[in-house]
């Protein structure tokens, strides 16, 4: 007697017309918030509303946006990844190790650095899915490991890419006049990630695991294998973020990375992805990342002290998480 696997549970985004409308309204609310914040800073500062500053905002969104896109997949499954910030710094250092210390060409060193991020994600996935370690603890441990390894492998000193101008051009070059390559890369990976999340089996299972992991497993899906794969896939974005930030700075800074994970997770939640899993979108995450970047840029232009910038960002994160809890109760 043969058994037929039931299809996985459909994600909440396809849970009916009402659910789809509600999701769109949440994205529109986030976009409206972005417009209001942008308009506010444009009014209070004469230096904010300019093409140069607009490009600067997009440029500063690249790293947070790249990290946020990867972690969107993880959070939709109901997980979390606290290691993306220090993991990004470690991948930047590995890029320096491959290209500067080992003399590999950027065409080889860059993919290796990105794959190293995937390796970290793979380890996180194994710890979470196979060893059943809570995601918070597993990725917290990886955060500390990555922070330490970045300092060890770099001898606690920056690695400069002075002799690799092609590497720096990955971020700061201009295939399109006045538009940094980093912005184009962010747009490209956002499109790719959006297609994968909405049109492929990877995205379907990502939503399904987050919506109801037990039902997904009972339908015949190997949940543990897919969770490992999702964490590994998200790790590739951590590796890419490491490449982008080191190319932008022209150096691999081993101490860079702390705090980026909070901004990336905040961007994901602000964009409408639920911390309880099963719901989220790439376009919402990009809107959230832009909100974070506009806030940072506007507060800096207004000469708000860094400590108060942190206070304001912390309040934004609290509001985003509280809003997520309200959405969960109303669901």
From TrEMBL:
Q: Provide the alphabetized UniProt keywords.
A: Cell membrane, Membrane, Transmembrane, Transmembrane helix
TM helices/strands, residue ranges: 28-48, 54-75, 82-104, 110-130, 137-161, 181-202, 228-249, 282-302
Per the record, membrane topology reads: Multi-pass membrane protein
| Cell compartments where the protein resides | Cell membrane
Q: Sorted alphabetically, which CDD domains does this protein's record hold?
A: TM_PBP1_transp_AraH_like
Q: Does this entry carry the keyword Transmembrane helix?
A: yes
Key word Membrane present: yes
What is this protein's name? ABC transporter permease
Give the organism, scientific name.
Answer: Amycolatopsis thermalba
């Amino acid at each position: 007697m043969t058994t037929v696997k039931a299809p996985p549970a459909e994600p909440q985004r396809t849970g009916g017309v009402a659910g789809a409308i509600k999701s769109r309204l949440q994205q529109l609310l986030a976009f409206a918030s972005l417009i209001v914040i942008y308009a506010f800073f444009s009014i209070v500062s004469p230096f904010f509303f300019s093409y140069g500053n607009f490009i600067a905002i997009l440029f500063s969104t690249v790293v947070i946006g790249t990290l946020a896109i990867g972690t969107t997949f993880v959070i939709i499954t109901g997980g979390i990844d606290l290691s993306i910030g220090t993991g990004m710094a470690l991948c930047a250092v590995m890029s320096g190790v491959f290209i500067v210390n080992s003399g590999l060409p950027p065409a080889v060193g860059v993919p290796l650095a990105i794959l190293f991020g995937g390796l970290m994600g793979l380890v996180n996935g194994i710890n979470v899915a196979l060893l059943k370690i809570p995601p918070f603890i597993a990725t917290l441990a990886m955060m500390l490991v990555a922070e330490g390894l970045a300092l060890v492998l770099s001898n606690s000193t920056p690695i400069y890419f002075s002799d690799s101008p092609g590497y720096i051009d990955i971020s700061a070059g201009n295939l399109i006049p006045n538009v940094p390559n980093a912005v184009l890369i962010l747009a490209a990976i956002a499109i790719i990630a959006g297609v994968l999340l909405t049109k492929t089996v990877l995205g379907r299972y990502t939503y399904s695991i987050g919506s109801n992991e037990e039902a997904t497993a009972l339908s015949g899906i190997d949940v543990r294998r897919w969770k490992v794969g999702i964490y590994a896939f998200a790790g590739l974005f951590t590796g890419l973020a490491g490449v982008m930030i080191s190319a932008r700075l022209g150096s691999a800074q081993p101490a860079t990375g702390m705090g980026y994970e909070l901004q990336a997770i905040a961007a994901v939640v602000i964009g409408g992805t639920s911390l309880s899993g099963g719901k989220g979108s790439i376009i919402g995450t990009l809107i959230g990342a832009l909100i974070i970047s506009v806030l940072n840029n506007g507060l800096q232009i207004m000469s708000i002290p860094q400590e108060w910038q942190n206070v304001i960002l912390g309040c934004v994160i609290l509001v985003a998480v509280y809003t997520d809890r309200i959405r969960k109760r109303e669901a």
